[in-house]
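Pasting as-is:
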Amino acid sequence: MSEAALRRGKRLPEHGEPGAGMAELGRDLVVRRVNGAFADLFGTMPDDVIGTPFRGWFRPADRDTLRREPAGLVPGERFDERLVGLGPRPFLADVTGRAIDDDGEVRLVLLVRPVPSGEAPVRLAALDARILEGLAAGEPAVRIALRLYLSRQAVDYRIGAMLRKLGAPSRAALVSRAYAAGVLQPELWPPRVASHALED
């Protein structure tokens, strides 16, 4: 099917759930149809999404998941993933996909639901960002303190504040939640806090 044919009147219906976007992909994971809510999530128009690789709309580390999971699905199978979408501001979304057979052609229909954030996006002071990067790299608090010219107690205090801010019960959970919230960039080593997560 030509790109022009794909663009001509190929819109999916709006989903009953407010803000939930829908997309239909071919086996090659190229977007064939979308609804308006899907385009809205990414701050664009439906015609600008049709014909593009679906992976391009998500954070790079998540693209690997999208390459592995959907392409191998057979009709009737589904997958559920939590991904970070690359809208005007990155957003966390639950993505559910189901493979369907359309006259011998396997297609994938996805529902993208933004995860409601009961609070403002996580923003960190520059010093907290350096501490979190050290934790994510596996550095002990003593080494982080020496590197940043702080006392061990000051580092522990700031880690405690971040634990409360992200609702994490432990330092390992803090790092995991920071990755899940898009605060840490998963494609980088050593770990780096994303610029959008830094306080002005």
